[in-house]
Structures are given as C-alpha cells and as structure tokens.
Amino acid sequence: MQSGTHPWLAQQRVHYGRPAAPLVLEEAQRCGARRVFVTTTRSLTQGRLVAACIEALGDAFAGKFDAIAAHSPREAVIEGARRIRDAQADLVVAIGGGSVIDATKVMLQAVWYGVDSVEGLDAIVGGAHRGGADPGAWDADPQSLRMIAVPTTFSAAEFSNVAGVTDVARRLKQMYTHPLAVPRAVILDPAATLDTPERLLLSTGMRSMDHAVERWCAIRSLPFGDALSLHAMKMLADALPRVKASPQDLQARSDCQVAMWLSLLPQSAGVPFGASHGIGYILGGAYGVPHGETSCVMLASVLEWNEAVNAERQLAVAQALGRPGERAGPAMREFVRGLGLPWRLRDVGIERERLAEIAGRYDGTGPIATNPRRVGSAADIVEILELAW
Q1: Strand runs (DSSP E) across the chain, as ranges?
Q2: Can you say whether the dihedral through the CA atoms of 52, 26, 29, 107 is positive or negative?
Q3: Domains in the chain: ranges and CATH
Q4: Whether the predicted model's global pTM rises above the 0.70 cut
Q5: Fewer beta carbons within 10 angstroms: which end of the chain, N or C?
Q6: Tell me: the pLDDT tens digits for 336-360?
Q7: What is the per-residue DSSP string for 60-127?
Q8: Confidence of residue 41 (pLDDT cuts 50, 70, 90)
C-alpha cells in the first residue's frame, strides 16, 4: 500500500488567460501592498508588458531592477536584493523567464536573512540558513516580503520554491529553496509571451516537456504526478507546434502555459527529475547553455540511455508525441527538430573533446543521482553525452 504526505506549495492563486497589467494591480491591492518593486530584464524593460504593469501600479510603483542576465548570476541577486531593501518594498513583481523568477526567489531570501554579499549567499544554499535544513524550522514570517510572477517564457520556474542561481566564478549552478520563495500568485497572460524570441520561447517549452517526461519516467512515481505529467506531455506536443506555425495564436500560447503549470506540480509531491535535468544544470552553469536548450539536446539521449530500465514506461511518451509504438528517444529528437531547435550538443557549441570534462563536474548529487537507470561513474555520463553529441 502506498502511503505518504503531499505538501502543497505556498501559492494562493494562478490566473490564466487574462491580461497581466490589471491583475498585477489586483494582486497588489489584495495583499495591501503600498510599495511594489519590479524585477525584470533590460530587453523586457523596452517592451510594452513591463511598461503596462508599472503604469497599472501607479503611485504604488516603488522601483525597478532590470540587470538580471541568463542563469541568474549571484552578483545580480545581491544587487537586486539591495535595491529592494533601499526601496522599502512590501511586494515584488517578477516579470520575465526562469532566470528572472529564480533570481527574485533568492533576492527574497537575501532580504529575509540579511545577506548583503555574494559570499554570504553560500550560507543559505539549499535552504541551509539559520533555520537549518528542516523546512519546519524555517523562520521567515508568513507576512514577510513575497513575490508574484508574470512569466514570459514556458519554463515553469514560477511553480516551484526552488531556484537555480549561478556562481559565475566557480562556473557552478547552485540550488536555493524556501517554502515562501514560491510566488504567492502567478499571472499566465499568453500575450506576455509575444515579445519573447521564438527560439527562446519554444526551447523553454521543451524545458517543461523535460519536466513532464522525467517525472513520468521517474524512479518514484505517484498517481497525482503521473496524471499531471502525462497530460502536460500531450498538451505540449500539441501546442508547441501550433505556436511555431501561428505565432499570433494566443490560444496555443495559453495551452503551453497551462501545460507548463501541470508539468512542475509533481515536484511538490517529491517526484524527482533525472539525468536530463542534472546534466542540464552542468551545461547551464559551467558552459552557458540556455536552460531550455539543455533539454532540447539532452532529453532524447537520456531517454535512450534509460530505455533498458523503463522501456514500457516510455511507450506513453511516444504516444503523447503522436508516435505510438515507436521508441521515445528518437521520437523526442524528431519532435525537437520539427520545432527548429538545436538537438545535438554540437548545435549549442559543445565540443566533443569537452565531454569527459563535463562528466567530471558531476559531484554525486542532484537529479543525476535520481536517474531511473543508475549513473555509477563519469563514464556513464560520457556515454549519455556521446548519444547527445
């Protein structure tokens, strides 16, 4: 008999299919915020979305930080946290993709725990701050500074209390977690994705496909997670090609947003990722490969490598892609190619001579350790990388 406890995220609302700007104001008013700070990127600052949200906030707008680069460098986190403190903000609105949203999660933790230097972030990596590793002991006040998120990509970072931030000096992706780091509300406005470049948007959709597939194929599955993962796969397989074929199709974009939401919910039940995510963290943190593109180049090969232990489970992946009876790995590779996205490591600038170096960066922890087929050595990782090269 299966038994366990399912914890829900500290997320109160998900709005979908509605314009972002009036909802940002509605959420600010709902929580009584008087000083609302915006985090975003310089490119988004030039567009209509950020301007509309700031205009909607009116006198409640307290400032903006838009120097967040890809992979959420720790330096940007510290500077953003300083700006939030100086503005005396009582609510933060993160407008952007996974890098903006993850960086903002860690900015909040830096504000809560008085971290004011890059080196100081080491004290709170993985939730190892003054409350200890036990979530029950974490002591940020429930009324502490929180965030809401307006995602502009399909990466699904806004549905997790975990954040990946990059230690640029060590070329290392570090994971931070806190139950109150998850946005208290999320606004899924399909129009918010219209200015996102096609390659970035579709590749982050593949990131959510990776979330769903690796959770479906996980070493620990649960009915709750299986239902969400399977439906997310089917929705993304249908909607991502529609976004590519008809870029102005807001319904297709909305379907992708709902699918990415479904893809990440099993995380709260403790269903783990596998080697596609784990190797992706290395490729992103050490080699600068964008989050979504790591999934584009790794997922199919990880499926192929894992086939020896979960071939039957993978049949549903191929079925979701509209390729019943076929092998999931090759079917996934063709799906990525059909979206016009990079599908090999060489396509994202990784030289074959570096494969052993990449494998050597694995430290025995993270999603590679929970891969369905046991990864016992760096040689196993090289084998996967060779399939992807």
Answers
A1: 13-16, 36-39, 61-65, 91-96, 147-151, 162-167, 172-177, 185-188
A2: negative
A3: 13-192 (3.40.50.1970), 198-387 (1.20.1090.10)
A4: yes
A5: N
A6: 999 999 999 999 999 999 999 999 9
A7: GEEEEE-BPPTT-BHHHHHHHHHHHHHHT-SEEEEEESHHHHHHHHHHHHHHHTT--STGGGGGGGGG
A8: very high
